[in-house]
Amino acid sequence: MTLAINWQALAATIALDGRAFVNGQRVPAIDGAVFDCISPLNGKKIADVARCTKADVDAAVLNARAAFEDGRWAHLSPKKRKEIMIRFADLIQANANELAVMETLDMGKPVANALAVDVNAAQNTIRWYGEAIDKVYDEVAPTSRDSLAFITREPVGVVAAVVPWNYPLLMTSWKIAPALAMGNSVILKPSEKSPLTALRLAELALEAGIPAGVFNVLPGYGHEAGAALAEHMDVDCIAFTGSTAVGKRIMQAAASSNLKRAWMELGGKSANIVFADAPNLDEAAAAAAGNVFYNQGESCNAPSRLYVEASIADEFMAKVAAHVAAFKPANPLDAATSMGAIVDDVQMKSVLKYIQSGVDQGATLIAGGSQVLAETGGFFIEPTIFMAQQHMTIVQEEIFGPVLAAIPFDTEAQAIALANDSIYGLQAAVWTSNVSKAHRVARALRAGTVHVNQYNDDDITVPFGGYKQSGNGRDKSLHALDKYCELKTTWLKIDPA
Fold this sequence. Notes:
- By secondary structure, the protein is α/β, with parallel strands linked by helices.
- The chain contains 15 helices and 23 strands.
- The protein has a 7-stranded mixed beta sheet, with helices on both faces.
- Helix 15 links the parallel strand 20 and strand 21.
- The mean pLDDT is 97.
């Protein structure tokens, strides 16, 4: 289906509007400031985007608070909010091609992936939380016979959502869907590197029937608009996905302002452990390569640390390296492309610097390692594989690019120790035919999700988040609703007959 579409031609017809979205309207930044939106496909400017700052945040919060207090959304019946959320999902689906192209132009991922994964998952997330609205029940506590205690969920109020550039539409849906489902007003701050689909999403939300003022989008820089949201005294909750360093600053701002709730879904350096008794080494090798090179390696959960039992290391790494050819960087607007462009020049240079550090520190370069397609003006890097050592920078730090670092191990205990030797704990994987070993290792790994004999399985019904400095946030599943509500206990005294 995607092969039949001329994506390049479609891209030329789409109008890109970079104005903010506040109180149901497209508006410029209050001071008129803009920044350039540069496409990673060719390094060219594709739009002027509103550079929102504290004044814009103040205006958006004022409107969001008014919308929350008058109940135009929060006081609607669960049935009505559900209908609107499902209509919102339907509109995303109806505009899927446009959204996919915008995501590709803005962020650089292959358009086939943007359509099949990002857009599809976004509409599914909003639909799923819409369906959940009238299916999540409150509670009655088991108190004594002379009292009755209700435990009810209430929306927390004004929610700020700050999302990253690697999965703009998907990360947005993970934040706004449960927040809106609970009846909150939302102010979204997309990354300045990829703001376009978030702005279009706000228009679709209004068209679906979400009232003006309930869902607002403020593009801008993190140190300006993002910081203002974190510090704002009338924002009740802030949910962030991004780097650990920025997450720490947001939590500090949240604490020093009004002690707003702060939910952080942060970085990762996920460990992928392959034992010699893995049930299918070919499948394990395909997963090892595919999941670290997918989305140009710009995934917080990418299994970028590969631990291979020494007895099969040479054989297995040859199998992994054989998959590099399937991830040749190419034009992201070609439906056959499997690896697109790095999001911008700054990130490309950062990835190349990490690759050079691997070389400088003595890691063995097995594949890739270079910038390619420089003549296009875009930002492309080859899929890269190193044989490394645990102390090296490419093993310890999150690179956020198509770089895999592999290390051999001898024993189960050593594999666990190496995998847990990280400040992060987002995801991990274990490949073994031994069920007891799988359970032992999975229990020992300090990670929010542990995959066994796969790395691809995912569903909206399961929570996503990590341990340690991967943060305290949990997106997806019914658990995410708890982030955006208050639990209230109401006691009634029952007079005796």
